[in-house]
Amino acid sequence: MQSQIVSKQEFRLACQKLVAAYFDQFPNVAFQYLVDWGSNDLMKYPINTQNKPGGWAGGLVHAVAQRSKPSNRCVLNAEMEEIFGVSFATIGTRAFGVFIN
Question: What percent of the chain has pLDDT over 90?
Answer without folding.
Answer: 39
